[in-house]
Amino acid sequence: MELRQKGDDEMALIIYGTQYGTSKQYAEQLATITGDSVIDSRHLPKELPEAHVIFVGSVYAGRMTGLKKVLQVLAPERNELTVVTVGMTDARSEELVAGIHQPIAAKVAEKKISLRGCYHLQGKVNYDGLALKHKLVIKPMVAAFKKKPANELDEQAKMLLRAFDQTNANEPTIDFAVLAERMT
């Protein structure tokens, strides 16, 4: 599935839900690529006139930031939705990504909204910028993972360690080329 069909003249509205800014960066870059408008999920109108909505949201502990608000303003007879999740799971891990997308697809189906597609993009961690509640969760988890031999870690733990090690030093890991590739 593609986010937009080649030659498709319809304009979409890109909405983002973010806690630390990565989803906002993806949404703004997507808007640059497509020419569509972009808005924060916290500032949604009561209804959306655009037929196609692309929602880019961060995923934390199985919950997608802003999804509930987006689903409240969509109308089955008027809107269709594309979902782009952003999180620590590596987009190449089809099984783990499916585990993220299945409950989201179920929520969208409950609202009888047409789901055009689900995509996942790698997020990043800037430990210094995390809220205290997230630091209290991540720090002991990372420390426990680092104490274990690599062969005893599951794929999700390995991904979290890689992401934490890569981005804790504020190295950018968002690959906008991946986003553009998925658009064509």
TrEMBL record:
<dbReference type="Pfam" id="PF12724">
    <property type="entry name" value="Flavodoxin_5"/>
</dbReference>
<protein>
    <submittedName>
        <fullName>Flavodoxin domain-containing protein</fullName>
    </submittedName>
</protein>
<dbReference type="InterPro" id="IPR029039">
    <property type="entry name" value="Flavoprotein-like_sf"/>
</dbReference>
<feature type="domain" description="Flavodoxin">
    <location>
        <begin position="13"/>
        <end position="146"/>
    </location>
</feature>
<dbReference type="InterPro" id="IPR026816">
    <property type="entry name" value="Flavodoxin_dom"/>
</dbReference>
